[in-house]
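Ticket #4471: structure output looks truncated?

Reporter: J.K.
Steps to reproduce: submitted the chain below (885 residues) through the standard prediction queue, then opened the result file.
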Amino acid sequence: MRTDTPQTIFRKDYTPPSYLVDTVELGFDLDPARTIVASRLTLRRNPAATTRGIELHGEDIELVALRLNGKLLGKRDYTLANNLLTIRSAPDDVVLEIETLCAPDKNTTLSGLYVSNGNFFTQCEAEGFRRITFFPDRPDVMAKFTVMLRADKARYPVLLSNGNLLEEGDLDDGRHYALWEDPFKKPSYLFALVAAQLVCQEETFRLADGRDALLQVWVEDGNLDKTDYAMQSLKHSIRWDEEKYGLELDLDRFMIVATSDFNMGAMENKGLNIFNTKFVLANPRVATDIDFQGIEAVVAHEYFHNWTGNRVTCRDWFQLSLKEGLTVFRDQEFTADMIGTATGRAVTRIDQVRTLRQAQFPEDAGPMAHPVRPDSFVEINNFYTVTVYEKGAEVVRMYQTLFGVDGFRKGMDLYFARHDEQAVECDDFRRAMADANNRELGQFERWYSQAGTPVLRFEGRWDEAAQTYTLTLFQSCPATPGQPEKLPFHIPVAVGLLDAAGADMALVVDGQQRGTTAVLELTEAEQTFVFTGVTGQPVASVLRDFSAPVILQGGYTDADLLHLFSHDSDPVNRWEAGQRLAMERLLKLTGEAGANDDAAASLNLDETFIEALRKILVDETLDPAFREQCLTLPSESMVAEQLECVDPLAVHIARQFVRADLGTRLRNELLAQYEANATPGPYSPDAASAGKRALKNLALAYLNAAPDAASVALAQRQFDEADNMTDRAAALSALVAARVPQAADALAVFYDEFQNEALVVDKWFAMQALSPTTDLAAVRALMTHPAFTLRNPNRARSLVAMFCVNNPVQFHAPDGSGYAFWAEQVIALDALNPQVASRLARAMDRWRRYAPALQWQMREALQKVAGQVKLSNDVREIVGKALAN
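Returned output as attached by the reporter:
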């Protein structure tokens, strides 16, 4: 829907639906240009409703016929305006029959029913079902669906929908049919169908209750050799949910279908999960370790939605984090459990913290800041955000931190016992946690209703005579749009104390033994805790395992951080100490680079920091994966977030200097670790092997940050000889970033070898878009490549979004050309696919934080987009908020 004055929808205005839907019968005669959809709905008046008429949503579809209790309705019997069909007078019990037409082959939005590579797919979350037929398209209307699919058998031999297959057969006219039934109530956003030329890997899987379930992974012909890891991940997910939470697969079959045209990563439609190919297809030749990790996590995430999202769903879209935050937490715990080691769990936790710092904290500090449970929106698709997902997961994690694993499980059990097959609110989950653990959690609700990232400060004082350590915690939260003042949060702060030798002290707080890590509950703006029996001056390890999504400021000297970086038994805080040491130096060097035209020649990195990294690098008692995390510098965007006025070139010069200096001064150690972390033999994506490759390839990147003939030859040799995509792509990236002549030849060889592998071609575009050597002219040249198209979301993201979001030094070119390019591409994408366009529009969220010379050019680009006569609500909301706040 395009409008000049988009409507803002408020959570406070929620009203129950006027009618409830008990059953839905759908019939599809599938044709790319002209699909006929027939529906029969049984409705009954909702006794809780405050309105009388039947309201049905519909968008970009043609109404052919409408019958109420067998009577054909004329235009005088209903109104159809602003994508809402209203029948003002209807009895309490209604059978509504509707016939509509749609054109899937013209649906470039990839929302509703659309065609991809000649096949039919659907995407109905959040509001895509209204592009298929008229329906009360809201999550609190839950019904049982029966679906008949009819299509040409030669063109579409596979016909799939939700639930269980009841019947299939041939028709007289070369077509065939399949009848599907979903035995559980669901909202319309969970509906799905697929009609396609596909092949599948399938297995029969024995469930914990003794039933056998059919598991299928459907892909296009030629990709069957890339489905095994997705299948294994699905089986592991099913077993984990049985064992961890007592939740079983409730259908006779579970299907995953992969398509290359998909706006999201995947979708949890009941029993028929539709996935972006990126999160299904993998083998060592085409997929990296990160790809394998992503597949495992996303397959698990979508399967876990079967209970946390499908069986119990959202009352309204403001409650989106009820299902997404909870399910992200569940897939995070699954990933950690699959690794099975304490260090492996810590490494996954560090990845989660890095995502928060790099993406969610900036969102909290920008014009799109919103609570985990938003209060308003113009376009719900804009609120599939890192705040709803990742911060939402952190809110769920805090319950487990407060109550422990057993207490959290009790809360989950009570949640399902109370709300199975219901559409509920975030508050219902909070109440279940509170009631199951006999706790009052009223203040905890502020995590759902207040936007922004709380700032946590601490002061510590050791009293030698009294042998006490007094820790005072302070919390505050900056203003965000619409919320100038914040009340104190309920923050669990996990704390340990290290002695002079780096060992954990036994903790006694308020007379209670607390082991070596105490979870302190901060509920006031300022609160003091006293540790007794502290015989020596400690260094406090505050916020262990990142126990709350807050910004920890101050409290540490350089010596404290070095002590923690060398000794902390909590791996997350040990890593965090290294990040703080690195950030302090990056900020200092950025300031020097911005004040000096010949900055690179005058910058200097202290030996203390170098030596601290050297000790971590060569410490063979530490897992390679953890060492790789410790040696990875904060990104340029993370450095920029610490600055009041951002100079992207200065940030880039500073970080590149540190990388080159490390590559030079640690050259011998990096070479030794490169050789020591080889993974001979057949490729395996297991965590230990992936950790070794990560450290080896980080060493290669550092060596080529200050390239010489030997380091370039090392990268070239790895590129030529690698037997897996992880090592091949890492070597190519090192060559491209090193700005050496060999890079062009390697890029050509890589494309020639993988030009028929779409996901690898995405990598090829992305490597170039990310390189600081790739300027706008090079990006425009790549857009003319025969393999590039804006119509495919993965391809558009791999080049255009990667350049605008993740190549700051080139995107923020002083002449403003990057901003003009951004405006051009947002406008072009908006005409094709508003969801993809709005994601790209977010690249300019933080424009007010840049140097004045850049600000006015960024504002000009935003105004150009905002001034378009035809602009989707998706993009208009983003640019409007950016300009207003």
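Triage note (M.O.): checked the attachment and the full token line is present. The chain has 27 helices and 34 strands.
Status: closed, working as intended.
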